[in-house]
Amino acid sequence: TLPAFSVVVTKKEKLNSKVFSISSITIHVNNVTVTAAQSENGMVRVNNHRSRLPISLSHGKLRIHQKGKSMLIQSNFKLKVLYNWDDHVVIKLPAALSGKV
Q1: CA 90, CA 95: separation in Å to the nearest integer?
Q2: Measured between alpha carbons, how far is residue 62 from residues 14, 19, 55, 57, 84 in Å?
Q3: Which of 51, 62, 63, 95 is deepest in the core (most CB within 10 A)?
Q4: Which bin fits 69, alpha (ψ -120 to 50), beta or left (φ > 0)?
Q5: How many CB atoms lie within 10 A of CB 77?
Q6: 28 forms bridges with which residues in the sheet?
Q7: Domain residues for 88?
Q8: Is 46 among the domain residues?
Q9: Could you give the number of structural domains in the chain?
C-alpha cells in the first residue's frame, strides 16, 4: 500500500508587486498535520500547537529540522519537503511513487 500524504502551499502576492511569496505550507502525513508559516520563521505548528525545531513525531517516522535557512521535513517513506520561509519549496519523493501522485 502507498502512504497517504498531502502538501498544500498557500501563496500571497507581495505588496506593490506581481511577485508571490509562500505564506505557508501544510503537510499532512502519519495522522499529523504540520504547518510552517512565513510569519513564524524557525517554528512549526503540529496539530495547531506551536513547536520549536528540531522535532521528531510519530515515533520517529516524521522528523523536522532546520537546514541552513530552511526547514526540512522528512518522513519514513522518504518524502522530503524543504521550505525557506519565503518563496521556495522543494518536494522530493521516492521513485516508488513515480506516476502515482
Answers
A1: 16
A2: 32, 32, 8, 5, 19
A3: 62
A4: alpha
A5: 15
A6: 6, 33
A7: 5-93
A8: yes
A9: 1
